[in-house]
Amino acid sequence: MSDVHGKGLSVVVPVKGRVPQLRRLLESLREAATACQEPVEVLVVDDSEPADAQAHRDNCAELRARYLRGPRHVGAKRNEGVRAAAHDLILFIDSDCLATPQLLQRHTKTLRDAGEGVGAVAGPTFVQGVQNAVFRVMARSKLLNSAFEWPAQASRVGWATTSNLAVRRDAFEAVGGFAPRPLTVVGGEDVDLGLRLTAAGHGIVCDADAVVVHDKSSIEHLGTVCRRLVTYGRSGQWLLDVHPHRGRPKLNRVSTLAATAVAGGVTAPVSGGAGLLLLPAVAAVLLAVDTKERLGDDAPTVRALAESVACAGLDWCFDLGEFIAAWQLGRPDRLFTGFGWTDDPAFVWDREPANRYGG
């Protein structure tokens, strides 16, 4: 295909399964395209099983999206979509999201109006407000969905989630696109891309009005939440491999409990078994400290305390992911090292977010 790409916006959507969710997204993108003053195309890159793949093909044909078969890793799917794209601006959005009516027009206008040194625009992603118990618990977390909302709280960021990120194609290609095979199938590739864009002088500005709505299914079940947090923790250790200068000392709760368990077992024979009490004692202290942090300024009602305790425990899944990946990558020296997610001047906050990684 030609190396010359026309003026317009190509929307790239990676997917596996999620047939109803993707159809809803395609419908929302079709509506948003009518408000955009530039040409728009939508590319779906899929590695679903045959039945779901056929459903995606049918929906793409009906809703005028291009269907592509792609690899397993999400970053590699997005790279495939960009290679096939016709336009000079690219919008990345996730298959379990919905575009708001002005999304495409906001991104194209903001990118066109941005000066030199801007390579991307990040918009906020707001999770649908289902008020079940899991939602209330995770609303207290600084790990699960906080990065989604940073573009509504900052004027510039050093990286942004690719649930809602528009990039100049030339900037994307200049830094080599997404890492095709990170440690996890999904997770961390968006952080890595943003950091490389920023380091290369292609800054990321924010447009608080370029809004995406995230499907509630990602936080409806505890099992889904735990898996996501473990994945995020594992991706943090991979990010330390590719951005080692961003390592920061961290009190990893799981590493602390593992070290305490070993120490308790070693001292138990000479302490008359008292060493075995170390683990529950340390766990209780850590849980109490984390619960207080998540309770914040709320009155300590039974429900607020229960939600804060549950949130603290669930957030330890992130630490579990870091713990697992440190061993998986052969880096036990990083059991007490975390990734510096936002502690650099590339993040310019209009208002300090309530929930910020590492904060």
Characterise this structure.
The protein is an alpha/beta fold and 359 residues long. The chain folds into 2 domains: 6-220, Spore Coat Polysaccharide Biosynthesis Protein SpsA, Chain A (Alpha-Beta Complex), CATH 3.90.550; 244-341, no CATH class. Helix content is 45%, strand content 18%. It contains 12 helices and 14 strands. The chain has helices spanning 19-34, 50-63, 74-84, 103-113, 133-138, 146-149, 169-174, 189-199, 222-242, 253-267, 278-295, 302-328, and strands at residues 6-15, 40-46, 66-69, 87-93, 97-99, 118-122, 125-127, 154-157, 164-168, 203-206, 212-214, 247-249, 337-339, 348-349. The strands form 3 sheets. Strands 3-2-1-4-9-6-10-8-14 form a 9-stranded mixed sheet, sandwiched between helices. Strands 5-11-7 form a 3-stranded mixed sheet. It has a two-stranded antiparallel sheet with strand order 12-13. Strand 1, helix 1 and strand 2 form a beta-alpha-beta unit. It is elongated.
Helicity range? 40-55%
| Coarse morphology | elongated
Based on secondary structure, the structural category is alpha/beta
The strand order across the widest sheet is 3-2-1-4-9-6-10-8-14
- Which architecture of the largest domain would the CATH scheme give at its second level? Alpha-Beta Complex
**Total helix count?**
12
Rg value: 22 Å
Strand proportion: 15-25%
Tell me the distance between the termini: 46 Å
Look at the structure and name the CATH superfamily of the largest domain: Spore Coat Polysaccharide Biosynthesis Protein SpsA, Chain A
Succession of helices and strands: EHEHEHEEHEEHHEEHHEEHEHHHEE
Mean pLDDT level: 92
